[in-house]
Design goal:
disordered N terminus; seven-stranded mixed beta sheet; 9 helices
Length: 216
C-alpha cells in the first residue's frame, strides 16, 4: 500500500507511536485492539487515531476493532520500514557507541553498515563489530554502500561540515544528535534529537503541574 505524500509530520509521528504500541501488543499475544484501547494506552484520542489510520485507507472492522498484526504490517509499510534500510553512523564516541549497540534498530529494519570518525586513535578500531573508517573515505565508501540515511553523533562544532559531506556522499536523510541546527538542501530531510530541549520541556510541564496543584 502506498502512502499519500501530503501526510503531515504530526500524523507520521503518531503513526510511529502506534507502531511501537502495536509491536508491544503483538509481543504480548494480543490479537485485536480498539481505538479506545489506543487512547487509554498511548494517550492519543480515539477519534484522532481513527483519523490518522483512515488517512491511508480503511482499516479495522466496526464493533470488532483492528487486527494487531495486520495494522502493524500496514503502518510499517506506510513508514517504509517493512524492508531493510542501510544507514551510516558518523561519530565513534560514547553516543555513537550507544547508538551502534541499540537493538531497536534491527527491529525496525535499520542496519548500520559503516561507522566513521576523524580521530586517528579510533580509526581502524573495532566498533560494535564494525571497523571505524576515516571520515575522509565517506564518499568513496558510500558509493559502494549507497546508504540514504545517516545518524550524526558528532560535536556541535563539527556537525555542519559533516552534514555537508554527508549530502555530497548522497545521503538524503539525517538523524541529527548534535545540539545545533543544520543548514541543508530542502531535498535533504533532517530530524533533530535534542535531549536538553526535551528535558527543558519536561521541567516546564513538571513545574506547571505543581503550580496548578497548589493554586487549587
Amino acid at each position: 500500500m502506498s502512502s499519500k505524500p501530503s501526510a503531515p509530520a504530526p500524523t507520521l509521528e503518531r503513526l510511529a507511536t502506534y507502531l511501537q504500541l502495536l509491536s508491544e501488543l503483538q509481543a504480548q499475544g494480543v490479537e485485536t485492539v480498539s481505538s479506545a484501547d489506543i487512547e487509554q494506552t498511548a494517550g492519543i484520542g480515539a477519534a484522532q487515531f481513527r483519523k490518522d489510520v483512515s488517512f491511508f485507507g480503511g482499516f479495522g472492522k466496526p464493533g470488532v476493532g483492528y487486527d494487531v498484526s495486520e495494522l502493524l504490517s500496514q503502518i510499517a509499510s506506510i513508514l517504509r520500514i517493512d524492508h531493510e534500510q542501510t544507514c551510516l553512523l558518523i561519530g565513534a564516541g560514547n553516543l555513537g557507541a550507544a547508538l551502534a549497540a541499540y537493538p531497536g534498530f534491527s527491529a525496525y529494519n535499520f542496519h548500520i553498515a559503516a561507522v566513521f570518525d576523524n580521530d586517528p586513535k579510533k580509526i581502524g578500531t573495532s566498533f560494535n563489530g564494525l571497523i571505524v573508517r576515516d571520515i575522509s573515505e565517506l564518499c568513496k565508501v558510500n558509493d559502494a554502500i549507497d546508504a540514504k540515511i545517516a545518524l550524526l553523533a558528532v560535536p556541535a562544532q563539527n556537525a555542519q561540515d559533516v552534514a555537508d559531506l554527508l549530502v555530497a556522499a548522497g545521503i538524503k536523510a539525517i538523524m541529527n544528535f548534535a545540539p545545533v541546527y543544520l543548514k541543508t538542501s530542502p531535498k535533504v530531510y533532517v530530524r533533530n534529537a535534542y535531549f536538553l530541549q526535551e528535558l527543558a520541556v519536561l521541567s516546564f510541564r513538571l513545574h506547571q503541574a505543581e503550580e496548578e496543584r497548589f493554586s487549587h
